[in-house]
Please model this.
Amino acid sequence: MFGSTVLEVAIGLTFCYATLALIVSAMQEAISALLRLRAHGLLEGIKTMLNDPHFSAMARDLYAHALVNPHDDGTATDPRALKAKPSYIEPRHFAQALLDNLQTIPGNYAQLGRDIEALGDPQVRRVLAGIYQRAAGDMEQFQDALAGWFDSAMERVSGAYRRRAKLFSLLLTLSLAVLLNVDSVHLFSALWQHPSLTAQLGASGSAPDPQTLAALWRLPIGWSAWPAGIDRHLALQAAGWLLTAATGLFGAPFWFDLLQHAVHMRDTGDKPKP
Model:
């Protein structure tokens, strides 16, 4: 069974990391919405998917379709000229818009095959020709296959976005760790020597309330004096900042769930005296 000191230190560290991760998550979402990162990532993914890096062929025609980009007038010839950029495209809408742009005679499957063969880009032509042959004359099946192709491509786009988000989260957490001096090494040492600092933390294991936020300020974080120079103390402090930054990769839900389990474990036995 864990000793009371171990549990109190674990609760204090977990609460600190959870609060920091919550702040980072809110900041990251705000920055993402402000810079429209998802919309830009989706556009780049479609340009790559349709092999149209200059936005001058199939990607441009797709973004001019009302099903894909209903808030634009369809006249943009450059990504910067788009009046709106969607952050999400329904796969069925993508498939219908692409089909509308491909076929010269709506509903004519034989003509659709000739339209695909007339495409100038060999890479896209090969992909669409394979989908066309596997659909075997069924226009609905062809459209479903286009939607599936889009889903597969967007999974790769989402994976790339998550990797960039992880890196951004790491850098943002490191910046806050330095700015607020959230040094994990010093924090652990102080909590180990004074576990009563965490007595009021995580009472419910949920998001911070005014009482727990007040208790948070009792933790040994923040600046009392700037480092005097580059020495062993600063190196140890930098290691603590890096360790704190690494915790941001797990995200706030992980830390709050861990906090709930730690508090539950503490509450199953006698609470330590302050």
In short: The two ends are 20 Å apart (CA to CA). The first helix runs from residue 4 to 35. Confidence is low (pLDDT under 50) at residues 202-207. The chain has eleven helices and no strands.
